Amino acid sequence: MNLPNKITVSRVCLIPVFLLIMAVPFDWGTFEWLGAKIPVTHFVGAVIFAIASMTDWIDGHYARKYNLVTNFGKFLDPLADKLLVSTAFILLVGLKLAPAWIVVVIIAREFAVTGLRLILAEGGEVAAANMLGKIKTWTQIIAILLLLLHNFPFSALSFRLDLIALWVALIFTIWSGADYFYLNRGVFARSK
C-alpha cells in the first residue's frame, strides 16, 4: 500500500474516533472564548474532523505529485470523504446544530452522484472531481467546523457565519450535483 492510500485509510480510521467523541455523552465541560461557549467534546471533535479533512488534500497531493494514483485510492478516497462529511452532518442534526432537511439534501446528492459514478464506471468511464465538486467539499468542511465550534470566532459579533456557511454549502452541493448530472447526461441516453 502506497503512502497516499495509507493517508486515506487513516482518514477512514479517524471517522469512528470522531463519532465516538461526538456521540458518547462525555462531560468534559465547556469553555468560553470570544463570546462562544464551546463544549470541550465539540472542540475535540472539530480538531479530529479538521485533521481528517486535511488528509484529503494531503493524499491527493502526494498521489498526483509522485504518480501514485491507484484504483484502490480512486475507490477509497471519495468514499472516505463522503463517510466523514455524512457522519459529521448527521451528528450535527442530532446535536440540533443543523437543520435535518438541509442534511438530507446534502446526503441525497452524495448518493445520487455515487449512483451516477457507478453507471459511468460500468461503461468504462471515470468522472473525475471538477472544481465545483472541490468547492462543494470545502464549503461543507468549513460549515461543519463552524457549526461544531458554535460559530467561533464570530459569536462575539452575533453574526451567524456558521448558518451562512451551511447555506453556501447547500447551494454548492445542489449546484455541483446538477452540473455533474448535466455533464454526464449522455449516459442516460445510451442506456435506453
TrEMBL record:
Name of a matching Pfam family: CDP-OH_P_transf
GO process terms (BP): glycerophospholipid biosynthetic process
Molecular function GO terms recorded: CDP-diacylglycerol-glycerol-3-phosphate 3-phosphatidyltransferase activity
Coiled-coil features, chain-numbered ranges: none
Lineage top rank: taxon: Bacteria
EC number: 2.7.8.5
This protein's record includes keyword Membrane: yes
Taxonomic placement: Bacteria, Bacillati, Bacillota, Bacilli, Bacillales
Transmembrane segments: 12-28, 40-58, 79-95, 141-158, 164-183
Subcellular location: Cell membrane
Family indicated by similarity: Belongs to the CDP-alcohol phosphatidyltransferase class-I family.
Function comment: This protein catalyzes the committed step to the synthesis of the acidic phospholipids.
Protein name according to UniProt: CDP-diacylglycerol--glycerol-3-phosphate 3-phosphatidyltransferase
PANTHER family: CDP-DIACYLGLYCEROL--GLYCEROL-3-PHOSPHATE 3-PHOSPHATIDYLTRANSFERASE 1, CHLOROPLASTIC (PTHR14269:SF62), CDP-DIACYLGLYCEROL--GLYCEROL-3-PHOSPHATE 3-PHOSPHATIDYLTRANSFERASE-RELATED (PTHR14269)
Origin species: Heyndrickxia coagulans
GO cellular component, one term: plasma membrane
UniProt KW keywords: Cell membrane, Lipid biosynthesis, Lipid metabolism, Membrane, Phospholipid biosynthesis, Phospholipid metabolism, Transferase, Transmembrane, Transmembrane helix
Pathway the protein takes part in: Phospholipid metabolism; phosphatidylglycerol biosynthesis; phosphatidylglycerol from CDP-diacylglycerol: step 1/2; Lipid metabolism
Entry membrane topology: Multi-pass membrane protein
Catalytic reactions on record: a CDP-1,2-diacyl-sn-glycerol + sn-glycerol 3-phosphate = a 1,2-diacyl-sn-glycero-3-phospho-(1'-sn-glycero-3'-phosphate) + CMP + H(+)
Chief location bin: membrane
InterPro entries listed in its UniProt record: CDP-alcohol_PTase-I, CDP-OH_P_trans, CDP-OH_PTrfase_TM_dom, CDP_ALCOHOL_P_TRANSF_CS, Phosphatidylglycerol_P_synth
